[in-house]
Amino acid sequence: MATDAERQGALDSRIARELAGGGNLESQSGYTAVLIKGKKVNHILHLILSVLTAGFWLIVWAILVITNKRQRIVLHVNDDAVVETTVTQVGTGG
């Protein structure tokens, strides 16, 4: 059984790695943290570009929406200071 400091250190270390890899910290409480990886598609920008290009930009916009993958990553530290990870799809497009 790990100490509280070891458990917190394990979580902090893993959060730092995820943030360095492009994740965004959504929430953190106790020995659990929730991060989001991936970017939202800026729909307003793509709407404006589609209007300005008489609809030609719709192809690019559609590809971005289809290929954009966002993930929610839940990190939880167990009693042995092992970080357990659960990954779920948030949705496509944003």
Provide the descriptors you would attach to this structure in a database record.
alpha+beta, 4 strands, rod-shaped
Describe the structure.
This protein has a domain at 4-40 and 69-92. The termini are far apart. Helices cover 40% and strands 34% of the residues. It is built from 3 helices and 4 strands. It is of the alpha+beta class and 94 residues long. Strands 1-2-3-4 form a 4-stranded antiparallel β-sheet, with helices on one face.
Write the layout of secondary structure elements.
Layout: H1 4-20, E1 23-29, E2 32-37, H2 43-52, H3 57-67, E3 69-77, E4 83-92
Antiparallel strand pairs: 1-2, 2-3, 3-4
Describe the structure in brief.
The protein has 94 residues and is an alpha+beta fold. It has helices at residues 4-20, 43-52, 57-67; strands at 23-29, 32-37, 69-77, 83-92.
